[in-house]
Amino acid sequence: MTTVDLRGATCPTNFVKAKLALETVDTGAVVEFLLDDGEPVKNVPRSLKGEGHKLLGLKEAEGYYVLTVEKGEE
What keywords were assigned to this record (predicted)? Predict the structure, then answer.
């Protein structure tokens, strides 16, 4: 599984980086994104879902969140 660390990236840069990361994997691949609390954890999952990707989980870690996404059809 690919893990992309987006901690420290501001909106909308973190969404753009997430989208670019998903372009490098095949449909159906699972990618983990590490997100900061606040706007990133609210906006990135919503935006990725709006792009047609499947949200598999969002869990809190030590001071950040881990978002697990399955790449949808392009």
Answer: Methyltransferase, Transferase
Q: What are 24-64's pLDDT values in tens digits?
A: 999 999 999 999 999 999 999 999 999 999 999 999 999 99
Domain-embedded: residue 17: yes
Domain with 20, as residue range(s), is 8-71
In a domain, 1, yes or no: no
Angle at the Cα of 16 (from 15 to 21), degrees rounded to 5? Answer: 95
Q: What is the pTM of this model?
A: 0.95
Residues annotated as catalytic are: 11
Q: Can you give the CATH number for the domain in which 63 is found? A: 3.30.110.40
Q: pLDDT tens digit string along 9-28?
A: 999 999 999 999 999 999 99
Tell me what pLDDT residue 12 has.
95
> Residue 36: inside a domain, yes or no?
yes
40 by DSSP, 3-state: which? helix
